[in-house]
TrEMBL record:
Region feature Disordered, mapped onto this chain: 193-276
Biased composition (Basic and acidic residues): 222-258
Signal peptide per UniProt: 1-23
Official protein name in the record: Cholesterol esterase
UniProt keyword terms in alphabetical order: Signal
Keyword match Iron: no
Top-level lineage group: Bacteria
Length: 276
């Protein structure tokens, strides 16, 4: 049962991959089998691991090679494990192969777990982590290391909550699956909705715009201050009304008009107007 769980790539490694730092140092994955190239999902509510390494590799397929981030764990417990792959079948359409384990309080367990993944998400905690270590020198998992000069990292322990992973290959020396349930279903029923996760990530990026809108609301507050000035303008209009009552006395009307000029000048000196 080779299609099973795994681990998350840290931000340091993902950043290095995005910048092409690993392009010249990817070695062939220690997962020595030829991959199908099909991407499948793995999720877990929590992964607890002892001994962690990570570096870039190439998975070899029959007709293509796939750059991946290899994550190796010497000993791993996975709670609420799910693994799924959805494939299109002629006539039937999408068909889902889905595996679950470790949902009864006893986690699934793997020794010398090696997973090659291209998309990973979760909330991770590492202890005693080295980032940027030569991939050929990592020692967290016996026999699992990268090419000399490659970008790598290692840690004593790793914990990942809400693990969401898309991968092309997984292997383990031993893999215990308590409460195993394997099902084949017509239709698409993956472990998680990858499109929804991506949309949530993009929505998080857009939140900065919302923050700017929030700052813009302070402008609305300033507008509120201007409205108070307009309210003062309303009080001046009452002066005009008084001026109307005194219209028989042109001198008094003149005085009131000068008061209106002063009020106008006073309006231009308000703090709200200075903010403009």
């Amino acid at each position: 049962m080779a299609m099973v769980p795994t681990l998350l790539a840290s931000a340091g490694l993902c950043t290095a991959m995005a910048r092409g730092a690993l392009a010249a140092s990817f070695g062939v994955s220690p997962n020595s089998f030829t991959v199908s190239g099909e991407s499948f999902q793995i999720s877990a509510s929590t992964l607890d691991g002892q001994g962690f390494v990570q570096f870039g590799v190439l998975d070899r397929g029959a007709h293509a090679s796939y750059p991946e981030a290899l994550s190796g764990i010497r000993s791993a417990d996975l709670y609420d494990l799910c693994q799924s792959v959805v494939q299109d079948v002629p006539v039937l359409g999408p068909v889902t192969l889905r595996l679950t384990s470790g949902s009864g309080g006893t986690p699934a367990h793997a020794d010398r777990l090696v997973a090659d993944s291209h998309d990973l998400k979760g909330d991770a905690l590492f202890h005693n982590i080295n980032i940027g270590q030569d991939a050929a020198t990592v020692q967290g998992v016996p026999g699992v290391h990268g090419e000399p000069g490659g970008f790598g990292e290692q840690a004593d322990t790793v914990r990942i909550d809400n693990l969401r992973q898309q991968t092309r290959s997984v292997s383990a020396a031993t893999f215990r699956l308590p409460g195993l349930h394997l099902s084949v279903q017509v239709g698409s029923n993956p472990c998680f909705d990858a499109d929804a996760d991506q949309g949530a990530d993009q929505g998080g990026d857009d939140s900065s715009g919302a923050d700017h809108d929030g700052h813009g609301s302070s402008g609305a507050d300033h507008g509120g201050h201007h409205s108070s000035d307009e309210g003062h303008g309303g009080h001046h209009s009452s002066d005009e009304d008084h001026g109307g009552h005194h219209s028989s006395d042109e001198d008094h009307a003149g005085h009131h008009s000068s008061d209106e000029d002063d009020a106008d000048h006073g309006h231009h000196r308000t703090p709200g107007d200075r903010s403009e």
